[in-house]
Amino acid sequence: MARVRMSDVAAAAGVSTATVSMVLSGAGSDRISPQTQARVREAAEAAGYAPNSVARSLRTQRTRTVGLISDTIATTPFAGRMLAGANDVARDHGHLVILVNTDDDAEQERKAILALAGQQVDAVLYARMWHRVVDAPAGLPADAVFLDCRPTHGGWPAVVPDDRRGGAAATRELVAAGHRRIAYVDAPNPEDVVASGLRRQGYLQVLAEAGITPDPALHVRAATDASGGRAAVEGLLDLPAERRPTAVFCFNDRMAMGAYTAAHRRGLVIPDDLSIVGYDDQQLIASELDPPLTTVALPHYEMGRWAMEVALGLRESDRDDPLLMNCPIIRRDSVGPPPVTAGN
Amino acid sequence: MARVRMSDVAAAAGVSTATVSMVLSGAGSDRISPQTQARVREAAEAAGYAPNSVARSLRTQRTRTVGLISDTIATTPFAGRMLAGANDVARDHGHLVILVNTDDDAEQERKAILALAGQQVDAVLYARMWHRVVDAPAGLPADAVFLDCRPTHGGWPAVVPDDRRGGAAATRELVAAGHRRIAYVDAPNPEDVVASGLRRQGYLQVLAEAGITPDPALHVRAATDASGGRAAVEGLLDLPAERRPTAVFCFNDRMAMGAYTAAHRRGLVIPDDLSIVGYDDQQLIASELDPPLTTVALPHYEMGRWAMEVALGLRESDRDDPLLMNCPIIRRDSVGPPPVTAGN
DNA sequence: ATGAAAGCGCTAACAG
DNA sequence: CTGTTAGCGCTTTCAT
Question: Minimal Cα distance from A258: which residue of B?
Answer without folding.
Answer: B288
